[in-house]
Design a protein that fits this description.
- The complex is a heterodimer.
- By secondary structure, chain A is mainly beta.
- In chain A, about 0% of the residues lie in helices and about 50% in strands.
- In chain A, strand 7 and strand 8 form a beta hairpin.
- Chain B has a single domain, classed as Immunoglobulin-like (Sandwich), CATH 2.60.40.10.
- Chain B is about 0% helix and about 60% strand.
- Chain B contains no helices and eleven strands.
- Classes of the chains: A mainly beta, B mainly beta.
Chain lengths: ~110, ~110
């Protein structure tokens, strides 16, 4: 079985641009969560989606948005990129909203120049 | 902002030695989980301990939880070079999902 798939693996963008990151969950998993990990720090929670609805949101500005599609894949969008948005963006999938069984993808490394 | 703290920030040991990492947190939790991350890539789940448990074992891993002190520790016994990685504690609360600590960078020298 395929694990959590994230694309692209690496991305370089210019300040002010917009970016879309994609995540495909493990087959059968209906929840996707997004995390931002700045170099040298632990991941920070951005969003959780379950059955196409937002079920949790971290302390991030409105420039960050996400959605989940009928096939349970998800996109994270970041507008008006800042240098500080440079980070590893991790996606995790889970069966539902239970408190265990989260599987993380390998992440998308975003560099803003 | 981080709601968990881990110490040490970095740890260097010889193969065969034990490694102990500590985690403290500030709010109540449903459970606490430990993850490993190699070279800034994806997180791998190691072990979960619930708020009503005090100790759990999994292979060479032993985790303890003291909810009165809001702290946890991860012990890796008989360490191997392949254990070299960053280790994160993650506190789970419904609505906030996971709150990760800043991590401990473990280096196991052959």
């Amino acid at each position: 079985d395929a694990g959590v798939t994230q694309s692209p693996t690496h991305l370089i963008k210019t300040r002010g641009q917009q970016v879309t990151l994609r995540c495909s969950p493990i087959s059968g998993h209906k929840s996707v969560s997004w995390y931002q990990q700045v170099l040298g720090q632990g991941p920070q929670f951005i969003f959780q989606y379950y059955e196409k609805e937002e079920r949790g949101r971290g302390n991030f500005p409105d420039r960050f948005s996400a959605r989940q599609f009928p096939n349970y894949s998800s996109e994270l969008n970041v507008n008006a990129l800042l240098l500080g948005d440079s980070a590893l963006y991790l996606c995790a999938s889970s069966l539902d909203l239970r408190d265990y069984g989260y599987t993380f993808g390998s992440g998308t490394r975003l560099t803003v120049v | 902002s981080q709601q968990g703290e881990e110490d040490p920030q970095a740890l260097s040991i010889q193969e065969g030695e034990n490694a102990t990492m500590n985690c403290s947190y500030k709010t109540s939790i449903n459970n606490l989980q430990w993850y490993r991350q190699n070279s800034g890539r994806g997180l791998v789940h190691l072990i979960l301990i619930r708020s009503n448990e005090r100790e759990k074992h999994s292979g060479r891993l032993r985790v303890t939880l003291d909810t009165s002190k809001k702290s946890s520790s991860l012990l890796i016994t008989a360490s191997r070079a392949a254990d070299t990685a960053s280790y994160f504690c993650a506190m789970f609360n419904y609505g906030q999902n996971f709150v990760f600590g800043p991590g401990t960078r473990l280096s196991v020298l052959p």
